[in-house]
Amino acid sequence: MSKSNGVAKSISVKDLNVYYGEFLAVHDVSIDIAPRSVTAFIGPSGCGKSTLLRTLNRMHEVLPGAHVTGEVLVDGDDLYGAGVDPVTVRRQIGMVFQRPNPFPTMSIKENVLAGVRLNNRRISRSAADELVERSLRGANLWNEVKDRLDKPGQGLSGGQQQRLCIARAIAVEPQVLLMDEPCSALDPISTLAVEDLINELKDSYTVVIVTHNMQQAARVSDMTAFFNIAGSGKPGKLIEYAQTTTIFNNPAQKSTEDYVSGRFG
Amino acid sequence: MTAATEAFRHPAVRNRLTTRQLPKRAGLYTLIGAFILAAAVQGLTGFNWFALLALTCVFYLPAIYLLSRVKENRRKALDRLIRSLVTVAFLLALAPLISTLWTVVSKGLGILNWEFISTSGGAARINPDTLELVSSSGALQAIVGTLQITGLATLFSVPIGLLTAIYLVEYAQPAFWLRRTVNFLVDVMTGIPSIVAGLFAFSLFTLLLGPKAFSGLSAAVALSVLMIPTVVRSCEEMLRLVPADLREASYALGVTKYVTIVRIVIPTAIAGIATGVTLAIARVIGETAPIFMAASFTDSFNANPLSGPMQTLPVMAYTGYKFPGQNIDLSNSQAWGAALLLVLLVIVLNLVARIIAMIFAPKTSR
User: Fold this and answer.
1) Nearest residue of B to residue A121 by CA position?
2) Which burial class, exposed, middle or buried, applies to B81 when counting CB atoms under 10 A from its CB (0-12, 13-18, 19+)?
3) Contact B366 A97 (CB under 8 A)
4) Less packed terminus of chain A by CB within 10 Å, N or C?
5) Parallel, antiparallel or unpaired: strands A176-180 and A206-210
6) SS3 state of residue A23
7) Where are the beta strands (DSSP E) in chain B?
8) Interface residues on A facing B, Cβ-Cβ cutoff 8 A
């Protein structure tokens, strides 16, 4: 990365419970995430890892009735303190989703600039061009699209669209980047491109990634958190959080070992 | 060499996958046969287009079924029968449409010329040169009235309808009482007979302005009562079609809800919204009863929607037949001319809707 604002932040989750209405989805999670690192959340479907990820930039509030108890501190500031505006939070903590979702009415260039333009920040033409190039280079997409920046974003392939979404997310220069299964809709080659990108993003951002692919977690992450669920209808819990090498080679918990070695059940 | 490889090399002499089939054009020949038979029966009983086609169907349906039943199998016979029935149903549905169009065009085309479009009707005048009574046949007052009243109605309904739809889709919680109330009222409004809307506008303006308060504005209010529920429903549907992904993507960039709706959701749905609005206009532009009550009718030109009776094309078609002037034939052909103009206007509106949808459709080409 040629430039970043250089303020990747740490995240500290304390005693977090996440509810959907009355239903307790995630129970009592405490986790510390270091700045400029990649942390992977792994675990079976429905164990609450995506839900937890979404609470890190208050995206869960999009669903009516979702609420949390506990604290999420980003460099010491509580995301859930009184008077915190979720919009401000999301400007600093970006997110990439499972399915590529470029804005269909916008060109590639407009998609990258969407975060800036939609937030009504004024930006000169040259600064905009520079930001587009920097973000697309940051997302390893520049060489593929530099000749068709004015073409619609939805004309790209799935993998390119996902990298466009990453470019869009990093164009607003967030301090933390959350990725919710960013490769699950991509082919292996696009997956490789996104994984390479995550390795580069680590230099400037704090990255948290949810993945179902354990090889991917092993490849890209420094730390891994394993979540599990006691049964359907029960809340998800954090089972083990450690260095990725520890989780995959020498986990402390039996259920972690069963899961990462494929003997889950 | 095993039997299997043998089979690969030398296909069976007779393909065992085939079944018996009617010749390729059997259906067409049967149809022609049925037609000739029907014509022959007509020759005995007297000719009538409708009876000819009906008889053709009556002969064709059992004939093709039996033929196929004997020569092919039961499934195919049933398939041919049902396929023919579906086609007949389609033609039946098409018949009144084509017949209406044909009648309107054939009767209205005679009077449709530049003078009809560009002059307004009015009281008969005396031609100073020949001292004869001349009545003008123009429809300008009705064209202007139609465009003004429908335009005003659109101006009232689209903001109200679109904002209501945005409230229902983006803001209201599913079980919130206001949302359920609005939903219920929109449903009720959809079913309001148009004459009731006319009565509503008429009595509203009579209460406000005193008796004989006919005006284009009043008619526009009546039409908006009919238009708003249609606009709400079509906008609501279109907004719901916008994937939640896009809203989330926007929120995740730190964009506020209001900006997300205005800059992401509405542009994505604009093609559908524009089509829905245009179709709603096309729907109310042909309303007669409410305009007749609220704006009355007139032969003289009135381009001020705020006061005085206004003419519209559907009302002109109605009054031309119901209350003909001195020259009854002229009044009747004026009515047909107005009807034809109305049909043309609706066709143009539908084309406009398609063009708008094409222009605004999300870009996906590479």
Assistant:
1) B255
2) middle
3) no
4) C
5) parallel
6) strand
7) 125-126, 133-134
8) 57, 59, 62, 64, 87-92, 94-95, 97, 99, 101-105, 107, 114-115, 118-120, 148, 151-152, 154-155, 165, 168-169, 172
Interface test with B, best of A118, A135, A208 (most B CBs within 10 A): A118
pLDDT given for residue B124 in this prediction: 58
B131 has a pLDDT exceeding 90: no
Task: Using a cut of 0.90, tell me whether the model's pTM lies above it.
Answer: no
pLDDT value at position B136? 65
Chain mean pLDDT for chain A: 88
Window from B115-124, B208-217, B328-337 with minimum mean pLDDT = B115-124
Residue B181, pLDDT above cutoff 90: yes
Asked if residue B107 has pLDDT above 70, the reply is: yes
Rounded CA gap, B362 and B272, in Å? 11
Q: Which of B366, B347, B335, B356 is nearest to B104 (CA)?
A: B335
* Interval B311-320: pLDDT, tens: 889 998 898 8
What DSSP state is assigned to residue B140? H
- Taking the C-alpha atoms of residue B19 and residue B74, their distance in angstroms, rounded to an integer, is 12
- The pair of structure tokens assigned to B225 is 């009562």
Q: Which of B255, B256, B365 sits opposite A152 (nearest CB)?
A: B365
Could you give the ipTM of this predicted complex?
Answer: 0.87
The owner of tokens 């209001």 is B258
Of B247, B267, B363, the CB nearest to A152: B363
Q: Which residue of A has its CA nearest to B263?
A: A118
Whether residue B337 contacts residue B114, with contact meaning beta carbons closer than 8 Å, is answered with no
Q: How many CB atoms lie within 10 A of CB B67?
A: 17
Instruction: State the smallest CA–CA distance between residue A245 and chain B in angstroms.
Output: 31
Tokens, residue B298: 């007139």
> How far does the CA of residue A238 sit from the closest CA of chain B (Å)?
25
CA angle B126, B129, B134 (to 5 degrees): 30
Say whether A101 and B366 touch across the interface (CB within 8 A). no
Regions of chain A with pLDDT less than 50: 1-5, 265
pLDDT greater at residue A126 or residue B113: A126
